[in-house]
């Protein structure tokens, strides 16, 4: 005990978690930069500007045909997923709830501003005046972009400092905007719910970072990487808000009308199916058939990820059920077999199991999307429906659906490459000893970063009862 | 102590809670059946299909006139009520929060698929091709159908196995679809918020099952049927999301335009009124005028139930307040006097008090609906308004409002009969000793069905401090 | 200890917290009065009445152009903010979570009915028949009106009885309706998100009441005015739902089309900016750079308050970021320096720090609104856009924007005067020894007002471990 104690104290001394200079500096400098860049570049678009009144008269529109009314309800649902969904899903650790919900809050608020700029440069730039024109769709896309980084946060939860998270987010948003541009604009793949662009990228980005930041002695020294009763109930708040609002996530930026309608239905069905197979596998692989809260909290969501790309296609209701069926099984098996394997043999410590919830289902979603696109026919979609759904317009006017299938697959590869490559790069940066990350002994613990930490109950619990 | 101990151990031995075979089997078989049936029967309707683009041109509609935009915000609110509302409302028990929110999740995801089929056969069947065509309204109706079973779950909370709950749901959805068809289509009663179809049916269904599953020794052997501080705060999450989104529940499937608008207003007012009388009665009947959390969590919602049928009628704002006023009083008095009476003399153990929150207010709602319908006049509604509100079209074109009042009352009777009859039948099935239900001593306890249960805090609490 | 003990016991004897007569009496009498007044005055408006079918034909409208569809999603978001947002934000105290969320629920349900009447008399009175015609916009305004009183509740949280809160609400709603009429109708100031009307008024109203109810010995006698781990996580539920839905709050009653769209964007941006500067200042002023949960829970919201008035103006995205930037800093500094100063020297005990979250940011919001209005030009807004945004119609048709700026400032003064004056008046009433308020020793404690209080865990914690 004496030797271990002194080793830990040494770690605590070499690992300085004081972020009193770096955290405020990064926040203030960054926010100031944002104000300047927004001042130079960002303006309202024609639907959020006071000139809408003239625009709508010219185009003979009613006020209700402002894009705001098509997308705002879904936007708010997505917003809830980002802040409450991701934030509370990660509160399951007994002593890291502040960090889970608080740092999730910080990096989302930080990231969405940068996302508005980065995505704006690629998608919403008005070449007549060099300004980025934003509306509600940009807000949704910024939330999507942030989601990629929050997924990555799941892999390193409890093991990094807030400054590291801001660096992770800064690079993550940038990489996201570039891969999104390549996948959606250059390759012209479709990805309504971001199976590839968000989940595959975010998943592999986080796993690669976690691999770079591997802590060989983490398990021996840390007793806090588990849940308590109430922290698991808090995590269910996150699970349910993610599960319920996933139809909004996958339909938020799809086409007005049938596109949004169909994407919501497909996602609703895939998620329902996932719950049942998750429960089945969870029960089947535990003694006495007991359910594991980890699976219920996470694997039940895999169907929403996997149906993302194809959500706006004519996947058919039974197709959605099949996707959900498979993903519930695969994701739960991943928690049971793959996560321990990855930690032991691949040196990837994945706190939240994002490989099972985002990376694998994201890849499945990309494949489902490619197959569904390749199998699309005019007899099912109708001529105009096919053109609308796949945006076969302009330079893509004469693309065939089978070719589209190939491009979907190419998009998936790009997402994986950006995730892995970007993660290794950023992981390398995060290994620099300047970011204030905690010692092994302080991982999964709110104390290093939270003042006035009311820890008496918990430390009592830990010390007296040997939990 | 020794004798009691050995009796309990005997119970534990005879009552085997191992569901390792039955639970996965039911889930996998069922989900496979769903995929096949969806493949055969379920397709997108004209508003969620890619052919919408042609449909809307033919009918000279704008994209925003897709039913999706009329109903999707309400749908998501209803979805939150089903999963977070019902789920968290039932977390009040100190040691059954996983079961409350987890099994609620399971049976809702299970039930809504079956509901889409059952309700689809009755309401959305396209006779030209024998397919059920679904859109957002079907998703809402499936959630409604599930609500009936979740209400029933409240009566047996903590006393049944997940397999029993799936059986309860399977039969509950089926019975619901039939009674709904009889009440809404054959009798042509109106029931916007489902006071009769959902709450009366679900309430009596659950109470009858609980009566069939009566456990005479439950009280003596179990110390867990109570709340702790934090579990009561968790339950308030459920209460508030139910309370806030009830206007969406009652307006979700009413007529476009004034119907949805009026239903939301009426429900908002009834609920506000209920809160005040609940507080009044709760305070009046406790010594020192203290409030009881059970009443605040439950009786405050009774007004939303009772205004369900009449929500779309011209109930008038003061009418809504009166309904809420009465229901707050009746429901709270029910918790104080009726629930103990029913347990002692009628052998109905009603864990959540669904009789006070759903069954009684549902019956009141049915009666209010019948009176309001019978009292409807053309001078108040306008000729076209009256026709629209009561759907006096086709074979019902010349029905009078007084006759409609009688049919409303008939609908209420059907709901009660289906609830009681169906509950007795299903309760009989659930008494078979094959479902893995817990012994009396293991009721209201997550341990039999949840792995990795972090129970040290709780068992310490119970054993050392004699809570 | 002996002397202090007996003094406290004396207090407990003189301070009788029994509200068994007063609370039910107030609730029942009040609710009965509401029914009568609603019966006399309140009717549906043309969009929620069955005559809508004729109205829309006359005006050549589609059903989707019913105001319900423009405002209902935002209404529900506001509703969540009022009940879950305010309610859970106040659960941070370790032993006052029932009171926080329960009394918040009570006074909101109580207040919104009175608000419908009071605001209706000023704004929605139909002079042809002397009736108040209500629709969804009235529901939103009632929620807004209630928000003012809930803000005030934050200052006196844990120190007053439920009867006092009902009195506070009764007068608060009344004062609110009058000051709102003066500011919006007579002065014709614009205040989309209520920086002045809601936050400035509510903040100073609460602070003045708290000043009148000053308890000199509160700190010495009370150990409960702090949080525990889980209560801080509960409070984050409130924070996040307020933060996420604030764009809906500020856009809920702005003009259809670009007005709602722009208000949502501005608020989204201001809030994101606030998070970063809050984190920066919180970390900078604590040793080791640790974050303080109090700041994260509260100051992150200040940007939403401060952008309220100008949210619908052409504040520009960078303008919103600047507002948020400043408010995060000011609000956090307020918690660090101003709150202790006010308690010590000004005798204002502000439990939740509403001065930092509502009063100061509200004043800033009023000033920002005045400057933005005064700086508005036709070149930026367009002629028609300027007229629409500032409602320069009727008697205000030829008002200049610089004059409008002056009127905005005048509106701010009115809000402060009503808040301070009204608060002193109501505080005087609340000092009467008839309301059942708790002794100093019972403050921040749920026990006096909540039955069946499961306090064993807490009392054990307090007594055995000297937390």
Automatic annotation (TrEMBL), chains A, B, C:
Keyword match Nuclease: no
InterPro entries: Ammonium/urea_transptr, NH4_transpt_AmtB-like_dom, RhesusRHD
SUPFAM superfamilies xref list: Ammonium transporter (SSF111352)
UniProt keywords, alphabetically: Ammonia transport, Cell membrane, Glycoprotein, Membrane, Transmembrane, Transmembrane helix, Transport
Domain Ammonium transporter AmtB-like: 60-432
Transmembrane feature ranges: 21-42, 96-117, 138-157, 163-184, 196-214, 234-253, 265-285, 318-338, 409-430
GO-annotated biological processes: ammonium homeostasis
Subcellular location: Cell membrane
Membrane topology field: Multi-pass membrane protein
GO MF term (any one): ammonium channel activity
Family: Belongs to the ammonium transporter (TC 2.A.49) family. Rh subfamily.
Function, as annotated: Functions as an ammonia transporter. May play a role in the elimination of ammonia in the gill.
Protein name in UniProt: Ammonium transporter AmtB-like domain-containing protein
Classification of source organism: Eukaryota, Metazoa, Chordata, Craniata, Vertebrata
Gene from which this protein is expressed: rhcgb
């Amino acid at each position: 005990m004496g030797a271990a104690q002194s080793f830990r104290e040494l770690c605590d001394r070499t690992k300085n978690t004081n972020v009193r200079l770096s955290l405020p500096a990064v926040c203030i400098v960054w926010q100031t930069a944002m104000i300047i860049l927004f001042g130079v570049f960002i303006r309202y678009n024609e639907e959020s500007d006071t000139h809408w009144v003239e625009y709508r008269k010219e185009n003979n529109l009613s006020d209700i045909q402002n894009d705001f009314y098509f997308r705002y309800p879904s936007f708010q649902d997505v917003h809830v997923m980002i802040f409450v969904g991701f934030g509370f899903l990660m509160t399951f650790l007994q002593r890291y709830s502040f960090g889970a919900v608080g740092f999730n809050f910080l990096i989302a608020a930080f990231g969405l501003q940068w996302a508005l700029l980065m995505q704006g440069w690629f998608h919403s730039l008005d070449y007549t005046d060099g300004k980025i024109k934003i509306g509600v769709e940009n807000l949704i896309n910024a939330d999507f972009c942030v989601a990629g980084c929050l997924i990555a946060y799941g892999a390193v939860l409890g093991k990094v400092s807030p400054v590291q998270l801001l660096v992770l987010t800064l690079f993550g948003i940038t990489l996201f905007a570039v891969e999104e541009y390549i996948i959606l604009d250059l390759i012209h793949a479709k990805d309504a719910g971001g199976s590839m662009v968000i989940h595959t990228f975010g998943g592999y980005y986080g796993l690669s970072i976690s691999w770079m930041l591997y802590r060989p002695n983490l398990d021996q020294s840390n007793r806090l990487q588990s849940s308590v009763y109430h922290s698991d109930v808090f995590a269910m708040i996150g699970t349910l808000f993610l599960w319920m609002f996933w139809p909004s996530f996958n339909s938020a930026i799809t086409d007005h009308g049938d596109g949004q309608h169909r994407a919501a239905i497909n996602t609703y069905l895939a998620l329902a199916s996932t719950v049942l197979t998750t429960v089945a596998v969870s029960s089947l692989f535990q003694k006495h058939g007991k359910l594991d809260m980890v699976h219920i909290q996470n694997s039940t969501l895999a169907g929403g990820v996997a149906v993302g790309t194809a959500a706006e296609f004519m996947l058919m209701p039974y197709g959605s059920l099949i996707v959900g069926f498979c993903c519930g099984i695969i994701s739960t098996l991943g928690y049971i077999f793959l996560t321990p394997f990855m930690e032991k043999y691949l040196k990837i410590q994945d706190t939240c199991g994002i490989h099972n919830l985002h990376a694998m289902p994201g890849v499945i979603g990309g494949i489902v999307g490619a197959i569904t696109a390749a199998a699309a026919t005019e007899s099912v979609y109708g001529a105009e429906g096919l053109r609308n759904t796949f945006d076969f317009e302009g330079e893509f006017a004469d693309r065939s659906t089978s070719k589209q299938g190939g491009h979907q697959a190419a998009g998936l590869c790009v997402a994986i490459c950006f995730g892995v490559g970007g993660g290794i790069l950023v992981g390398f940066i995060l290994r620099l000893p300047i970011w204030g990350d905690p010692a092994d002994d302080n991982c999964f613990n709110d104390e290093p970063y939270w003042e006035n930490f009311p820890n008496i109950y918990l430390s009592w619990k830990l010390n007296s009862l040997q939990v």
